[in-house]
Amino acid sequence: MASSVLFKVACLVLICMLVAAPQAAAAITCGQVVRYLLPCLSYLRNGGPIPPRCCSGVRGLNSAARTTPDRQAACGCLKSAARSYRVNYGNGAALPGKCGVSIGFKIAANTDCSKVH
C-alpha cells in the first residue's frame, strides 16, 4: 500500500515538473528572416551600394536571432532563400561585415547550420 501511494506521489511530482517547466521559445520563422532582408535583395543579387534599410534589417535579424535554435533556423532560412532568390553567395557572405554585424557563421551553400551557435 505504501509503495502505491509513493508511486502516485512520484507521478504527481513528475507531472507538476513537466507542466511547470519553461517551454522552449519558437524559433524564428523563414518569413521573418526574409522580411528582415528584403531591402537587401538588390545588393544580394547584383552587388553595388547597400541600401540603408538593408543594414537596419541585418541588425534587426541579428538581434531577433539570439538563441542557438533561432540562429540555426535563420541559417537554414538564409540558405533556402539564397537558392530561391538566386543570391550571389559572395555578396551574402560579405553583407553582415559591411553592415558592421558579426553573425558567427559564413552565409554559404555548404554551411552546416546544425553547428551554428
Automatic annotation (TrEMBL):
Membrane-traversing stretches: none
Matching InterPro entries = Bifun_inhib/LTP/seed_sf, Bifunc_inhib/LTP/seed_store, Plant_nsLTP
Q: Name one GO biological process term.
A: lipid transport
Q: Domain named Bifunctional inhibitor/plant lipid transfer protein/seed storage helical: which ranges?
A: 30-113
Q: What GO molecular-function term can you cite, just one?
A: lipid binding
Q: Which Gene3D superfamilies match?
A: Plant lipid-transfer and hydrophobic proteins
Q: Does the keyword DNA-binding apply?
A: no
> SMART domains from the entry?
AAI
Name the domain of life. Answer: Eukaryota
What keywords does the record list, in alphabetical order?
Lipid-binding, Signal, Transport
Q: Where does the secretion signal sit in this chain?
A: 1-26
Q: Which family does it belong to?
A: Belongs to the plant LTP family.
What functional role does this protein have? Answer: Plant non-specific lipid-transfer proteins transfer phospholipids as well as galactolipids across membranes. May play a role in wax or cutin deposition in the cell walls of expanding epidermal cells and certain secretory tissues.
Q: What is this protein called?
A: Non-specific lipid-transfer protein
The organism's taxonomy opens as: Eukaryota, Viridiplantae, Streptophyta, Embryophyta, Tracheophyta
